[in-house]
Amino acid sequence: MTKPPRSSRQRYRAFVQDYTQRRLDDEAAGASQPLDRGKRRAYLRDYLRWLRPYRYAAGALLALALLTTGLQMIEPLFMRFIVDRVLLNARLDTAARLARLNLAGAAFLGVIILSNLADALRDYRQRLLNVRVMLSLRRSLFQRLLRLPLPKLWDMKTGGILSRLTGDVETTTGLLQMAIVSPAVSLIRLAVAVTVLLALNWRLALTALAIVPAAMLISFIAARRVRPIYRSLRKDVEQIDGRVGEAFSGIRVVRAFRRELQELLTYMVGRHTVLRKELFAHRRELVLWTSWGLLQAGVNVVIVWYGGYMNIAGGASIGDIMAFQWYSFLLLGPVWQIVNSFSELQRSLAAMERVFDVLAMDDDKPDRPGARDAPLMVDEIRFDNVEFAYREGQPVVRDFDVVVPGGSVIALVGRSGAGKTTVTDLVARFHDPTRGRILLNGVDIRDFRLRSYRELLAIVQQDVFLFDGSVRENIAYGRHQATNAEIEDAARRANAHEFIVRLPEQYETFIGERGVKLSGGQQQRLAIARAILARPQILILDEATSNLDTESEQLIQASMATLLAGRTTFVIAHRLSTIHRADLILLMDDGRVIERGSHNELMSESGAYYGMVRRQMESHGRDEEVLRC
């Protein structure tokens, strides 16, 4: 197995070799197989339905574009009129020439001003329409992403989600311009320019138009050859940005293992490679633009040269030649826009597929027909022969039959991978059972509206997630309407108030992304305060005190009695001091309950739970009496 090239020069040489041998084209074709025509047509219909509320704005935009085009097509005729009918008209005296010049010049100026005003209005309306469509599309896409099943979100990864919400939506929005407005206007401009040229002088027109097929061929070939370079560039930039995100998310690990220099070198090698590729692409674009410039200059030379010959022969006027030069510019512009539109259209269609593919996905656990609101109180939760598997044929929870009275505390213990967290995920309806039912007050929880059911829940996890906001905002995340007094009361009950008031701005202090400005114990106490304030009927504590020191844990244990009172609570914990007062302890192994009972009952049986307690006592140097309290 060969090692990948390390230096930017080696990477660049490998890239050039792949580019020269057309392997980049093959990779692109294999990496992104196009959708079948039927599905693409369906997505296009969806896109047109999406644009339907904006059809009048799009129509006005097209009308403004046509108005601008029409005015621009008139401008060369004014110049032709002034040259042939005023300046070179020997039959008019000086006064008549000045009068006609002033009148034609004023009209010419008026047309130019009106053309530029119409174009400015068109540009503003285009941007306004793009912003509206983009905002609406992002709203719907974000809303759908929030409701997608967790496995699909995991498959997309954070980078994929962000790329769809940013670049893909922006590119999809440009589909209106690239697929409809720009090609339509360019074709109309091209048709009008050709018609006018033929009407002015068909021989000169055919001479000028002979260059158009060559221009289109050069543009198509050049755009096609440059596109793989930018595709490779985007891939490199995505990898570099992903690595940067990982480096700063794991900055403690980077510093602990003294990898700062290596991360810097990795970043600079990647960026230097990108720079080399950008210059490589720029050199090829220079060839295109130079060829394009020579083409335009060549057209002008041909028009002047051949037009001069025709003028001498009496077949064309000076005004015709000057108008032809102007029209040649107006002619080649639409040709390039059409070529560019086809290139951008493919990119827009690919982005559209990624966006509408997500919009076409089903929501996570849609409400059943006839679903009702969940009850306000929990009398009983019953697990009826529940089984769940992430992969078919490999259940991680099996034969789970448990009755949980309302207001009781259920502790789930066992080794890692025994299925404890999966059980609580089933309670929270992050997943639904593969087989069996979970009943709340005798009703399958799938028969309740998901939103109303989750209003009963609050979760405190071992891996605490806090948002980049103030302390107050994080505590009140589950109840935005909570008063300051309620927020502070929840913080006191979670033993968080004392450290909060020592912060620079107390409850208004910003805690950074994921709460990085707080210690692990402080983060955990804020999460507990957030759960207290939510006033849940069903509480899930997944190693909720794992990041607390012994003193903080003891203080919170006192407040836990208030937190758990009257609430049905599922506790996952390895510290047995947090669960020995539970009403029911379930010892799980390989997805099954192998022992159940209170702490004292299980200790008296001297089974697997007893052995686990003994091992933990020995590791902590505690006496057995401590755990029999």
Topology:
Elements: H1 8-20, H2 23-31, H3 37-51, H4 55-87, H5 94-147, H6 150-173, H7 175-200, H8 202-209, H9 212-249, H10 251-256, H11 260-313, H12 318-359, E1 380-391, E2 394-405, E3 409-413, H13 420-427, E4 435-440, E5 443-444, H14 450-454, E6 457-460, H15 471-475, H16 484-493, H17 497-500, H18 520-534, E7 538-542, H19 550-564, E8 568-572, E9 584-589, E10 592-597, H20 599-605, H21 608-620, H22 624-627
Parallel strand pairs: 3-8, 3-9, 6-7, 7-8
Antiparallel strand pairs: 1-2, 1-4, 4-5, 9-10
Strand content: 5-15%
Provide the CATH superfamily of the largest domain: ABC transporter type 1, transmembrane domain
Shape, please?
A: elongated
Quick one: how many beta strands? 10
> What helical percentage do the residues reach?
55-70%
CATH fold-level name of the largest domain:
ABC transporter transmembrane region fold
Average pLDDT score: 76
| Main sheet overview | 6 strands, mixed
The gyration radius over C-alpha positions equals: 36 Å
Total number of domains: 4
Give the second-level CATH assignment, the architecture of the largest domain: Up-down Bundle
Ends distance = 61 Å
Count, helices? 22
Structural features, described:
With 629 residues, the chain is an alpha/beta fold. It folds into 4 domains: 184 residues, ABC transporter type 1, transmembrane domain (ABC transporter transmembrane region fold, Up-down Bundle); 114 residues; 152 residues, 3-Layer(aba) Sandwich (Rossmann fold), CATH 3.40.50.300; 73 residues, Rossmann fold. The strands form 2 sheets. Strands 6-7-8-3-9-10 form a 6-stranded mixed β-sheet, sandwiched between helices. A 4-stranded antiparallel β-sheet has the order 2-1-4-5, covered by helices on one side. Helix 7 runs antiparallel to helix 8 and helix 9 runs parallel beside helix 12. The longest helix has 54 residues. The chain is elongated. 28% of the residues are buried. The N terminus and C terminus are likely disordered.
